Structure formats: structure tokens, C-alpha cells
Structures
1.
Amino acid sequence: MSAPLLETENLSIAFGGVKAVDGVSLKVQPRRIHSIIGPNGAGKTTLFNLISGLYQPSSGRVRLAGEDVTGLPPDALARRGLSRSFQNLQIFFRMSALDNVMVGRHQHEKTSLLSHVFALPSVSRENARSREMAMALLERVGLADLAGKEAGSLSYGALKRLEIARALATEPRILLLDEPAAGCNAIETEEIDRVIQSVAASGIAVLLVEHDMRLVMRISDEILVLERGRTLVSGTPAEVRDDPRVIAAYLGTFGSAEANRA
Amino acid sequence: MARLLSSRWAIVLGLGLVLAALPFLFPSNYYFRVAAIVNIFALAAVGLNLLMGYAGQVSLGHAGFMGLGAYSVAIGATHFGLHGLAAAGIGAVLSGLVAFLVGRPILRLKGHYLAVATLGFGLLIAMALTNEASWTGGPDGMGVPRLEVFGTRLRGPDTWYYISAGVLLLGVMLALNLIESPTGRAMRAIHDSEIASRVAGIDVASYKLKIFVVSAVYASVAGSLMAFLNGHITPDGTAGFLRSVELVTMVVLGGLGSIIGAIAGAAVLVILPQALTIFHDYEHLMLGLMIMASMILLPRGIVPSLLARLRGGKS
């Protein structure tokens, strides 16, 4: 197997004595979809926040393409090719959908502040390039006809896809998606399914947190099950599905919740 | 209509026409003088609006930069024999530099904490200008030699009206350029979600600092113009706390995130006290009531609220 694009090694963080993430090690390869599942409060989002630089780990390392990036801020990680979406949306609500995605082009826009102030021709060329790429991404996630709408006026499902488009605009090598299908209807979930698979097919590594088990089982190459911050099981969808510990955890906690929802 | 108003060139052209047409309505030099003061405060408010309305960062000490611009002109000419324009340029660079040095530590603060820290900065500048009497003339202020360009002494409110109008127009154009650039998008993004901005690759601290520096340069140039127009400056008149509060009020009253709004806010806050003198003893009472009424009736500021009504009425 090739060298992992993203690697965490014994990653841990404690909040006031509670170990929210406790010694998690994982490896994500390019082109692969790696999912993290587990009951609510298992530490999935916390793990994402550690990897994407929003939290500082108490111990452990994060490596991106072999480089130790532990403790680097999110913008530094973005420049190294790591982007993410958020479970509870982080949208630029007062900007248009198109502008939201254009912000994702930021690190690829090289013109200087002075050239911006004097509106040099290079800036309008760069604006046009960013707009074109953002438009293509909106099309890719199926939001092209909402490009000019203020983001605050879009539906929840549309905003989920808008976040993915913005993250893709940074041209990531690894994309972290935190519950991209949460709150989406069947058609939107299908759209997101299609986008995730096309992202992985284009060579990007995908790390996915998702509660929609059918989606996870269908598209994941590998699944890591978290429980109370620790790795319970890690393996292929088939291995994870049949593992008695996973079955116990599911029946014990959100297996029942899942049943209630159905 | 709304589309037309949001286009960069339409705004500049429209503003240019208004500024060129206004003198035909001025019956006396007094009007030129008031209009020049409007232009000057509008320039500072446009710069502050970049910081407050677009990047979402407050400054309660921005008059400090006006003071630096004003006193650079006065001290440069009086103590160093510098040409007024060179002194104004040095003032702008100095203000930018001070903003850079001060902004680095204080822009880490958010909301009320940032407000108090910038307030402290403004007080510091005003105090320094008051206490360094050998340089600044102390609380009584100092005279500013008339600006001379190509052998012509620039004096008279009408001359300074046209100069300040030109500088304001340039300032508006540059601000609009900035807004429609990658920096402008980064600014607005930071205002809406710092977390998402950072994840999108934006160095949030560095952009806040850049906008702080830009807005300080606007205030400094406005301060220099004020010194040229008045021919005499005082610490309170240029850098005082009330001046800072006025600038913030202009931005909020006119409309956060609206360049034309900043100009409207400046016009209202400069002209209204002049117009309200007919109420004699109740002048300030009326001013306060009208500001309150404006914020209640036009909560997003004069220009954005009116624009929204215009759009709502059409659809």
C-alpha cells in the first residue's frame, strides 16, 4: 500500500479530565473513503477538530503527506491541502453562494493588497478565474442555479453541498466531511453520495463522519468505529458490520435510535 | 435600480456628479466649508466602514489616526519645513505603521474587548498630542501653514471643497476596488465566520491587520485635509474621543457595509447639528432624538434600509 496521505498517531485530547479522543491512530490513503462512525458523543467531531487544527491535541501526532502538522492552524493546513465541512454549518451567510465558494479559492489567488486597491487588470483576471472555477464547483454539487442567491436564504440541504463546494475550491488533497448527509432528504443524500464518490475518484482522500449507515456501508473503503473516544474496531465495511463488539455497541446505543428513526 | 447602484462605476460616477453639482446650490462660502467637512469625515468613515462594516472589527480610537494625519501636516511644516503634501504623505505612512504595530496585539481581541483596547489607543494619541506642548502647542493646538502648490496658496473653503471632494472620490473608488477583490471577499468571510475563513485558507489575523492599516491611512489623510482646511488644529478637535465616537456613529447610522452609507452618515452627522441650531438650547436634545429615531426606523443604517425598501417595493 502507498504511503498514507493523512496519518494520526495516538491522537488524544482531554477536556477537564474527560478524554474526548483517546489514542486514536488512523491512516487515510488518496482515492479512498475512510469513514468514522460511532454513537453520539463518541468523539467523531472532536477528532475532526483535532485533525483540522481547530483543537490542539493533548498528545499524539498528525502527519499530512509525511509532514508533521500537529498543532498547525487551519489556514496553514488548508495551504497544505486539507479542507473540511462542518456538522453545524459554517457558512458565510451574507455572501452569495458563488462568493462562498470563491472564498475557497483564496489561497490560490496571488495578487497583492496594493493591486486589489488599484484594481489592476491582474485582479479582474483573477476574479474571473476564481468565479469560473467556483461556478464549475457549484455545478458539480448541483447548485449552479442558486449561484447568485444569498447563502442565508438557501435550504439546509443546499448549504451542506455549498460547504462541500467551498472545501473543494481549496483544491484539497484530503477532504474531511462531518455528517454531510445530516438533515438531507433522499434526493439530496443521493447527490451527496455521488459527489463524495467522484471526489474520491479524482484522487482526493476522503475522511467521512456520517450517521446514515446505508451511505457509509455503501461508499466506504474502510471504517473506524469510535466509542467514548477510543477506537473500538477498524476495518472494511464487511468486517465492521459483522464484528460482535460493533453490534453490541450499536444495539446498546444508537442502534436503538436508528431503529426508532426508521 | 438596485443593480445599477451596486455597480462600482455607477457609484463613482453618481457620487462625482453629486459632488460637482452641489456647489451650484451653495449660496455662500459657509456652505462650501460645511460640505468640505462632510467630505473629510466621509473619507474617514469610508475607511472605518471597511474595518467595521466589511471585516466586522470595531475601532473606538480611529480619530487617533486623524490626529496623526493632522499633526503630521502641522508639525512637518512648522518644525521641519516640509512641504504640506510631503508631510501628509509621511503622516499616512506613519499612521499605517502605527496601526500595524498597535493592531498586531489588539486585533486578537474580539467585540467589546477590542472596542475598549482601541478606545485606549485613541485616548493615548489624544493625550500625547496634548502633553507634548513643545511640538504640538498643547491643548490650545497649533497653526497649520497654508498649503502652496505650484506657487498658488490653497485657501478658501471653496478650494478645499473641491480638493476634499476629489480625494473622497478617489477614496471611494479604491474602497470599492478593494471590496470586489480577493481581499474584499476575505474581509466579508471573516465577518461571517472566522472558523470557516481559516479552514478556507485565510490567515484571519493578517487580514484584520491589513484592513486596520488601510482604514488608518484613510483616517490619516482625512486628518491632514482637516488641518489644511481649518488652518488650526487641536488635540480634541482631531483626535479626541468624541471624534472617534462620531466616526463610529457615521458608519453605523449610514449603514455598516455600505460605502455610500458612510458618506450619508457623515453628511447627516455634520450637517444636522448646523441645521438644528434653530432649536437653540434644545439642539443636542434634537440631535440625540433624531439619531435614535433613525436607528429605530432604519435599523440597518440609512442607505441599506432605504435600498431594501426600494427593492421590496419593486418586487
Note: Confidence is low (pLDDT under 50) at residues 254-262 of chain A.
2.
Amino acid sequence: MTSSAHALGGVLAVESDPGGGFVAPGIEEFYPEPLAQFSLLGVDFEITRITVILWVATIAMIAFLVAAVRKPQIVPGKLQYVGEAGYSLVRDGIARDVIGPKGLPFAPFLVSLFFFILANNLMAIIPFAQISPMSRFAFPLVLAAICWVIYIWVGIREQGAGRYFKDILFLPGVPKFMYILVTPIEILQTFVVRPFTLAVRLFANMFAGHMLLVVFALGAVYLFNVGNYSVIFAPVSALMAIVMTFFELLVIFLQAYVFTVLMGTYLNGSVEPAH
Amino acid sequence: MTNLAAESPNPLIPPIGEIIIGLIAFGILFFVVAKFVAPRFEQVFRARREAIEGGIERAEAMQAEAKAALERYQAQLAEARTEAAQIRDQARAEGQQILEELRAQAQEESARIVARGEEQLASSRQQVVNELRGQIGRLAVDLAGRVVGESLEDQARRTGTVDRFLDQLDGMAAGASPDGRGATGSSVYVQGDR
């Protein structure tokens, strides 16, 4: 049983109890019952349906990518063409154009980032899954942490630790007395705000998107079943659920792209010394 | 609802287990992309670029070849033209020469023919003169005989009067001929002598 199904049960219960009113789905949406629970080396693992969705999305994306490059040809087939379009979007549009001439070695990482987020985000509107693992804060946080480590590591490798940290602490081209203000902001920005915003932006978008879809879908069901004049508003709610699904599709692509582009700009800052 | 909902957990506090699961999932995807997908795509891009550049190079080579061939043909054509002009000039010169040769030959021939004609004319005139001389003599003797009433033939033959007279005439003609204006009576013969 999914948590949405529990919520649906709650909504349908209104038939037997007309005075109950609409029970809006809450945070429990994102805490489905664990399918399995075990402890390994002192860490508790909970396998929920969201974990399963994460694996399904990841394996599906790997299968798609492998199928796309299984028999690479100069004149691409349909599958290879789609794979190439995605790969080129990140490789040329982000690794080459955003990071710069030194960006191409980061293409595989950025491509993985983009496709991983995209696959997991798409689960938000795939029937029977209909929840993105990215609406669980742990997953965006993992990606943001990886990005954080990489862009600091690349900055130290490319510019040297002294130069890299000096440029962050004392931004070149700023009047000396302004360092009182600029230095704390820069430190906070580079080491705290950047990864945190990366993670929260993705998480919050998918979290809110899911809540919107659930509210409109359950609202439609509730209005159909409430048994009074409200039933005329049910199609509006159902229509909104459909419209929001398309909107969610836009958000899915946009967030995957935004995450990758931002990582590109951070890497650009690490690769090239500040001016 | 579940007991989790009752506790109302903070969605911003991630469970450690999930973080590890996320790391593994992303790690596997990254491994596949870095080791397998990206190199293949790069290989395709490289092959495609080479194919396009190779095509351009081939086209350029073909164009250069075509240009060279055109130049060669044009050079050959110019050569052929000058050669033709040369041949024409030569032919014209040769024709001129042949024409002149022929003209000279013809002139020579005509001169020869004229000379032979003159020769024949002279010999036949001599023949005619000789014949006429005999006949005129006979005729004159005859006529004189008739006038006189007797035959003078024998006497004339004996004395050779007529021949003497004729020889006189001839002598007059021969005397007149060197200045081109002979006596009226012998004008025919004078012309023939020329």
C-alpha cells in the first residue's frame, strides 16, 4: 500500500462519514511504509517504494543509455539520436560552453548528473510510481555533496590551494575595506549556500510538485464522492491535476537542467581563476 | 495513518541509509556513463567529424583535379589552335609555291608550244612558198604563153626567167625584213619571220 493510497482511503471514507470533510494529504506522502528494514554496520536501511523507484529509474536510464550506444553509427538510429541529443545538450551546452575549453573532461560527470536527476524526476509523473525520489531530501543532498566536493577539489587542483582559497576569501577587484562585508558572504556562499541551494531547489520543486498533483487528484475524488453540489467542481479539480502534470513535466526537465548548469558554472569558477 | 506521520518527521533531515543508497545508485550510473556511454558517444562524434572532413577533403581534391584537367584541356586546345594556324600558313605558303611553280611550268610549256608552233608555221610556210613558187611560175608562163600565142614553156624553162624574177622578189623581201617593214607584197612572209 502506498501512502497516496492511504490518503485516498481517507478521502473515500468521507462517504461513510459525511461530516468528516476533506483530509488533505500531508507529509506522510513521503514516508511510505518500509518494504524491508535491516541494519548494516550500525546504519539503518529502510527499503520503501521510493527506494525501489530510485532503483527502477536508475536501471532504466542505464539501460536506455547502453542501448543508445550499443551499436553506435555515424548516421544514428532513433534511440541513438535521442541519447546523443541529451549527451550533446550537456556536453556542448554545459561542459564546453559554460565551463570553457577545460570543460570537456567533466562531460561524463555532468551527463551522469543530468540523466540521473532526469530519470528520477520523470518518476513523478510515470503512472504507478508517481513520486520522484528527488522529493526525498537525501538524494538531492547526495548529489549536491558530490558536486560540492568536486568543485572544491577541482579548484584546488587547477589553481592551487593557496590561490583558490585566497580568491574566495579576498575577492580580487574589491576595495579593501569592503572585505569586512564581502569575505563572510563569499565563504558562506561557496561552502554553504551553493550546495544547500542546489539540493533544496531540486528537492523542494519535486516535493511541491508531488503535493500539488496529489491534492488536485484527491480533491477531484473527494468532490465526486462528497454527495452535494460540490460535484460540479470535481471536473475542474481533475482538469487541474492533468494541467499540473504537464507543468510537472516542464519542471522535471528544467530542474535537471538547472542543477547541471549550476554545477557547470561552479566548475567554471574552479577551473578559471577569478578575474 | 502511519506512526511516522503521527511523529510528523522533518523532511529536511535525511536518513543515513538513504544517503548511502543514493550514493551507490549515482555511482553506478556515473561508472556506466564514464566507462561506456561517454567514450562511445565521443567516438561517434569523432567518426562523424572525420567523415564530414574527409568528404570535404575529397570534394576539394576532386575540384582541384577537375580544374587541372580543364587547364590541361585549355592548354591542349591553344596548342592545337596554334598548330592549326601554323599548318594553315604552311599550306598557304606551299600552295603559293606550287602555284608559282605551276605557273612557271605552264609558261615554259606555253613558250615551248608557241616555239614549236612557230617552227611548224615556218616550215609549212617554206613548203607553201616553194609550192607557190612552182605554181606561180607555171601559171605566169601559161598566161604569158596565151597572151603571146605560143608556148613559152620550153623557152621559159630554158632561160629561167621566172625563177630569176621570183628570186629578185625574194631578195627584195629579205632586204626589207630586218627593219620589220617589208614591201607590201611580201608582208605575210615578213610577219611569219618574226
Note: The beta strands of chain A are 36-40, 43-47.
3.
Amino acid sequence: MPAAPLDQLRSLVGTSHVLTGVELSPYVVDGRTPEAAVFPGTLDEVRAVVEIAAGAGLPIIPWGGGTAASVGHPPAAAALVLGLRRLDRVLEHEPGDLTATAQAGMTMASLQAALGRGGQWLSLEAPQPERATLGGVIATNASGPRRHLYGTARDLVIGMTVVTGEGAVVRGGGKVVKNVAGYDLPKLFVGSYGTLGVIVEITVKLRPRPEDERFVAVRFERLADVGIAVRAVMASDLIPTSIDVLDGDAARVRALRTAAPTLVVGFDGLAEQVQWQCVELERMTAALGGRDAVPLAHDAWLAMTAAGRDAFGTPAAVMRLVMLPAHVTDAMAAGAEAAKARGLACAWTAHAGVGVATAALFSPRQTDVEPIAATLEAWRASAHASGGHATLEWAPLAVKARVPVWDDPGAAGRVMRRIKEQLDPKNVLNPGRFLAGI
Amino acid sequence: MVPLAEPRKRALRRELAAIVGAGGVLSDPDELLVYESDGLTLFRALADFVVFPTSAEQVSAVVKLANREELPFVARGAGTGLSGGCLPAEGGIVLSLMRMNRVLEVDYDNQLAIVEPGLVNLHLSWAVGPSGYYYAPDPSSQQACTIGGNIANNSGGPHTLKYGVTTNHVLGLEVVLPDGEIVWLGGRTREAAGYDLAGVFVGSEGTFGIATKIAVRILKKPQAVKTVLAVFDEIERASAAVSAIIARGLVPAAVEMIDHLTIQAVEDAFGCGYPRDAAAALLVEVDGLAAGIEAQAARVVEACRDAGAREVRVARDEAERALLWKGRKSAFGAYGRLSPAYMVMDGVIPRTRLPHVLRRVNEIVAAHGLRVGNVFHAGDGNLHPNILYDPRVPGEETRVLEAGAEIMRLCAEVGGSISGEHGIGLEKTDFMPFIFSPADLAFMQRLKDAFNPTGRCNPGKIFPTRKTCGEAGPVAYRPHPIEEKGLAQRF
């Protein structure tokens, strides 16, 4: 990196907020080391950093907590990491309006703690809440079990302030819960992986903290029976916050200690509502082969969301599959067969009610890419067969070289490219990491 | 806009008829009049043609023809919009989607339906109702408005407080892009690969293309519903009660407010059981599990009593509940009893600012020598001040527009928005700078250019225009064309 832009960055944000050399090791992704990492402290500094980078022709990698940094194609060479961690405050929280505005670099854990003091929460969960930031969760469209009832970032973000690749500060949406003025820009930035703008401030809808909440685990002999139970729960009068399925291998996680396919259903609300639903769930599932319905501790539940990844040590790859809810348990069973046939192991977890599964693949010979790639392709094909898609969330470069990280979005991909060309004409924002060549 | 020369018009008519059939094209000025307005009769604009396609391929062919001829085009549903969004602002072709009105598929296992854009909103709930499901977004015009029109405006309704607006229920759409290409944005699954194109399409007011198939979520009907009517002697107490309900940790399905003037109109028209002497009434609905529903209703009742309600009662049965809702949903129509014309406003504020804003709205309208009725989604802070006036009185309409602009400015000042559900359309283009900076608008314009580079797809909407001196402002009020023909009352 030329000295001039580096000096400019240092004088802008202070020398201690610009990292170079060996300090950059946390920011190495897929073997690529950025030129520098810079941590602006204000919206205006973010804008100025983008201006300097764009002026010097440096690609910009927006960076929150880094928990999803492995998702995507390898980052651009000679790039500048723009870290948001110093922008970590709640700017506004009006409990009576059930809205809050926070800076993007705030971790999910500290945001929830702050909102909790007002008796409220943001109904959006992500793995590693101590590290994951609000901005990162939104940029990657991360979600957790309770999305079943409460939706994802697209349903919760009502306003956003971003810095564009040309250094303009743009606000979309607003601070009110209902708003149709102008285009719905927040939707565009949710899940855009930092390719359209650097998200700096976010306004979200909140919910009151429920009086009571419980997660119940029910074991089954056969995965197919879990699928039948999921359908029965969905067709019932129950209003679960989450409907998750773990296959036998994922269910061996410490919190569950079983090797049986397991259904985990969450409920919240008034105590009598939660109580009635737990009883009803036990009754329904018992009739379908479920046994040992046990309530789970809440922290145990959070640990389980990464259950699949930890099933057999270090995975060879992790894939996220989106499909129609009714196909989930079939896809899990077929996916396990596809791995077994190639001598590999796997573990699956799924938010079954919304059709989102995560599968971790394990190989005794990690360097033997062929069976790994073939299994991943088979998994992706099963998502396609149900009108869905798959993302290779984590894999070594050798596997990424064989298996596309993203799906080809087809004709819609052309629209996406036109949007990228219009909104980031100099292509400085996270170039080459996303799908369709974006 | 220059009218089309007759020979060219005849030739185009033949080409359009070849695409959609001879019975699917209107070009006679008398017939076109019906399509001159939407629910906001202040604005009128005449198309050269109205066509009635029956498939995505026909829509695409019409769009390609319009592009070849460099004619603007705009999609239209039932025409119940309230911001002029479906008007052919610059002539050209109106594509009415009313013949594409089928439910193509219902998938109960995956809780979704695929519908055509001309399907009437309520008809979807009718179709899936016998199986215990419904479509949640419920604009007050749901007996007439179409799902396609709801997509354009990202329509809301009373129950969006708990269940969200249209965009929260759309999974994906097949659209004809402004260049005529047919493409799916999103699909049937909960997430699509890449940018959330379905998310930005919904609410783009017909400027990103024309939806031809829509995949929507359908929800299980709740086991139980309780509707509470709270009557107040002071509107400020009713406003305070809204925040009090939320502060108790309740998320009602709906919190609607109806003020004194509106109660008069509704009771004159329908006799729904609202006390005539009330300053304001709140209609609060809780729904969900039968377990706990009484407790939730009791908390609502308590919150309203503590906020100073004079009378609070829970609807005894479905009949009473239906009557109360009829009063709410028919309120706009009922204003006709009080005044020859009214202007429906739509703005949003943080709900904690309700007491201040309602007081200011009443002051603003009174200062212009006019009357206002308020009936609105109080739980969302989505105001609908309806300014009553007589278009025959010279100058009155100008005062209505002035008061309207002041109310929009007020919404913006308290951190709100200039539209919660009716859209910007033609009506509010010049208010956009109240809440968006030039950089915000420039960014939106680029997004528009990505979908609609020629601007031919629904021109003149959303973005501020600079009116030159010679250009006319809004024309004087006239009845809707279908009223003039004696076909319908104003909705």
C-alpha cells in the first residue's frame, strides 16, 4: 500500500486505529492479508475512509465481528478492512415506540443487554453474539431458531444509514414501524454482504420481553417421524417461536446427549400460554413416536445452534441449504446417505418450519477433495429440487475451487449486477466475494 | 404530452388486439375515462389505451410493444389506490391486471399460495379460509383492492401491528421487467440467493416492473380473538392509552383509533354501536391461543381504564366484533354523510408522539377553516386525518392542500414518515425532500435506473418534480368518473 493513503488514514482516525503488518492476522481470510485495517469512530470518519480508499483505488472490506468473514469467494487482493467495532453505541431507544437505533459495530450481546434494560429485545439471533455485530448480522442476513415466528432482518430493520462506495451518506427507510415513502432500501442491504454500502446505523423494531419462554426437546427413533411431527405442529393451533430438527449425529451435542433424531420446539408468552403449549406438544408428539419431552435450559439451547459443526471435530465443509419446509427431513436423510456412500460423516440441524438447514461434512482425509465436492454437489442438488438454494458457508480453498460458494441466481442475477453497477459504479465494496460476479 | 395521431393509434390498437384479443383493448375516450383516476380523484390523466392481458407472456408482449413505440406504460389493479400511483401520468398504455385474478396454487404443507396480481385481497382469505388459513395483510379496501396493487404500495391494514405489512408476507414474484423480460425475483422459499429483489420490488409503486405471479405466505387462523372497545372523553387520553398498552408488554393484533367526528359519520351511516358523545374510541384486538386470551384482554381493559377511559367493554360475540370492525373499515365511505368531499391523508409518527401530533393536526386544520376526522392505525402511529371540504366553495381545495402539506411537515418534524401505506404516487412527490436528502433521492434514482433505465414504466411517480410556472397544480375536485356515470359511490 502506498504511504500517502496510509498517512491520510492515520491522521484521520488516529495512528492507533490503523493496523498494518503482523497486527493484521485476525483479518486474514482464505490466505489473503489486507493492506491495512482501519477503525473509524464516527459516521463522518467512515465516509472519509471510503473516500480515501476509493481515491487510492483500494477495495473496501466492511468488517464487524468477523464471525462470517469466511463466507464468500476469497477477498480482493490489496484491500482495506474497514472495521466498525468503535461504532458500538445505542443512539436511541424509546421503549414506548418499540424501536431503537444503534451503530453497526455494536455486538448483538451488548445490544440485547441494553434493550433488555427497557424490558425489550430485538428478535434476531446470530451465532456468537459476543462477537457478531448488528451490522454484520444484517449484512449477512444471519438468523436463529426464533426466526420461525419473528422473521429475519428483512422483517425487523426499518431504517438504515449507509456510506456508499462513492463516499455519500445515504439514509433509507426511517424510524417509524410502518413506512412506504420511497424505495425500501433497507431490504437491499440486508444480506448484501457489504457489496452495496457500508452499514453504519440501523433502526430496528423491537418486541417486549416475553413473560415466560421454554424450549422442549423430543426424541424420535426415526428422522422421518420427526418430519411428520413438524408438519403436525405446523398444522396445529400451537404458535411456536422455533421448530428445529437435529439429526442423530448433531443431537450428540452435550446439551442433548442423545444419538436420536430430535425435535426442539420453543414457546413464549404468558406462563399459561407456554404451559398449555408444552403439554399439547408432548401429547401430539407422543402419538407420533416422540418420547422423553424435556425442557432445555436456555443457554443449552444457544449452544446447540452450532451443534452440527462440532459433531466430529473440524468439518471439511459447512453448507447452508434453503428449501421448502416440507422437504427438510427428507433432504437431511438423503444428505446423510450421500455422505455415507462416499465414506464421509455429516451432521445436520435445521430450522424446519422455515426450511433452512445447516449441514457440516466431515472427512477422515480432508485433503481428498473429490468425495467432499461430490457430496456437497449432491446436497446442493437436493435444495434445487425443492426450489431452494445452497451456500457453501465454510470450506478450505481447495474445496471452494471445486464447488461454487453461491448458487447461480439465473436471470435475477442480471438484475443484481445492474444494481451493483448502478450503486457501486467503481466496484470498491467487497468486490468479487458475492454471487453473480458481484 | 402530445396525443397520438389517429392512423398510428389505429395501427397500435390492431397490434395490441393481436396480443390480448379484440375484447381486451380499450381506446375509445369514453371507455378510457373510467381509468382516468384512482381513489384520489384530485389527479386525473388519460391513457391512449387500456389493455387487459391474461398472462405474463401477454404482459411482456405489451411492454415490448410500448418500448418499441417509446410509449409509457403503467400497471393497474382495482384502482383503489389513494396517491395516484396507477395513473397514466404521461399517456400511453394502462395494463389492467383484473383478468389475471386466479389463485393458481395453494400449498398448505408449506403454508404458501401462488396467486395472480388481479386477485382481490379478500378473495385469497376466502379461498384458504375453509382449511383454517388466511392472508394477513388486510387493507380497509380489501373487498376491492388486488394483491398486485398491494405489492405496488406495500399495503398495510389494521392487523399489521402484529402481523406486518405486505412485504412481510411476500416470498417471491414473477415479474415482467420494464424491458419485457420475464423473471422470478425470490421464489417459494423463505430466502433467495443474492440480493432481496422481491423485497425492493414490493413497495416500488409499479416503477420496477409488473408482477404477474406472486408467492405469498398464508397463516393459520388464530384459535381465539378478543376485541375491546375503549371509550374516551378526551382524545389525549385515548392517545396516551395506546402507549400504555404497548408499555405493558402487550402486542395486540390491532389498535385503531376513531375520533368524535368519525364516530358521528359511522353511526349515521351504519349504527355500529360507537357512543356518539365520545371524544375518541380505541378498538383493540388481541388474538392467538385460547389459553391466556382472557388474561390479555383483561390487561388491555386495565391499561385503558388506567389511562382514563370512560367505558371499556369486550365484544360479547362475533356479531358485535364484526359490527365494530364494520364501523372502522367503512369510516372513509361514511364521511360522505358529513361532507361532499374529503381528502384522505396518510402519515406516520412515533406512537409516543400521538398526543402532541393529534393536537397539532386539529390546530392546523382549524386554522385553515376546515374540519378533520381521524380514523387510523394508532398502534403503528399511522395517521389518517381526513379533511372534509366542499369543492364548490372557491379556494377551499387550495386550503385543504395547504393544510395537508403542513401535516406532512409535522410528521417529518417528529421523526416520522410522509406515507405509511398509501404511497407517494403523484400526490406526494414534492414532499419527499421533507424526509430524504438529495443524496438519498439520488441513490433511489440509481436503483430505479437498474430496473427501469428508460423510465417508461410508470413515469412521473415517487420522485420530486420541479413545477415550472406555466404548469398547472392539482386540478379542482370532480367526482370519480364512475360516480359521474352513476355506477358507484365514492369509496
Note: Residues 111 and 357 of chain B are 40 Å apart (CA to CA).
